[in-house]
């Protein structure tokens, strides 16, 4: 079985045809809090990002893949590996399923399992971590179900909508 292919999901590299989907995601103010974004992105900037997305994770310390529904080859969202530290054998993880209609169908769970297997097998990491706002109950449950454990809390870490919010650190450690 291919590491990035599951029963319902395929994780694939970014392509030029993803520009519109990426543009809609990056400019959705509803998710700026979790992506730490404060300004919109132009299509020009995102096109440049797509052109450079083929660079190796060992060089840029990041990898973004498109989450696709295998049966329709339709893009559902993105999964990001970031702050890759080969020396310390760790990598951060972020996931977004863009449409509310596609959430709650097990796609994110399958994606987390695929990307975790990939990171442990091909990147030889010892741990994967995720930073989640304590208000994001759905993500907390998703990561717990995927074997991530709560390791700590960063108090008043995110300032959004006129107030401070705590951010939780979850880790999945390969034994």
Automatic annotation (TrEMBL):
Domain N-acetyltransferase as annotated: residue spans: 9-166
Instruction: Give the Pfam families listed for this entry.
Output: Acetyltransf_3 (PF13302)
Q: Which GO terms describe its molecular function?
A: acyltransferase activity, transferring groups other than amino-acyl groups
Kindly give the SUPFAM superfamilies that the UniProt entry links to this protein. Answer: Acyl-CoA N-acyltransferases (Nat)
Superkingdom of origin organism: Bacteria
Q: Which PROSITE patterns match?
A: GNAT
The record, for InterPro entries, names: Acyl_CoA_acyltransferase (IPR016181), GNAT_dom (IPR000182)
Which UniProt key words apply to this protein? Transferase
Asked if the record carries the keyword Transferase, the reply is yes
Q: What is this protein called?
A: Diamine N-acetyltransferase
Q: Which organism is it from?
A: Ulvibacter antarcticus
């Amino acid at each position: 079985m291919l590491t990035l292919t599951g029963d319902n999901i395929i994780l694939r590299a970014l392509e030029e045809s993803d520009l519109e989907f990426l543009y809609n995601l990056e400019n959705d103010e509803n998710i700026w809090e979790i992506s730490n974004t404060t300004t919109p992105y132009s299509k020009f900037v995102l096109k440049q990002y797509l052109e450079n997305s083929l660079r190796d994770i060992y060089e840029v310390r990041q990898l973004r893949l498109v989450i696709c529904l295998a049966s329709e080859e339709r893009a559902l969202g993105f999964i990001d590996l970031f702050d890759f530290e080969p020396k310390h054998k760790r990598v951060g993880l972020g996931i977004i399923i863009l449409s509310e209609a596609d959430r709650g169908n097990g796609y994110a769970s399958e994606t987390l399992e695929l990307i975790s297997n990939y990171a442990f097998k091909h990147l030889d990491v010892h741990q994967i971590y995720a930073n989640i706002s304590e208000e994001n109950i759905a993500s907390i449950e998703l990561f717990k179900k995927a074997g991530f454990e709560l390791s700590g809390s960063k108090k008043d870490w995110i300032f959004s909508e006129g107030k401070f919010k705590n951010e939780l650190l979850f880790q999945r450690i390969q034994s």
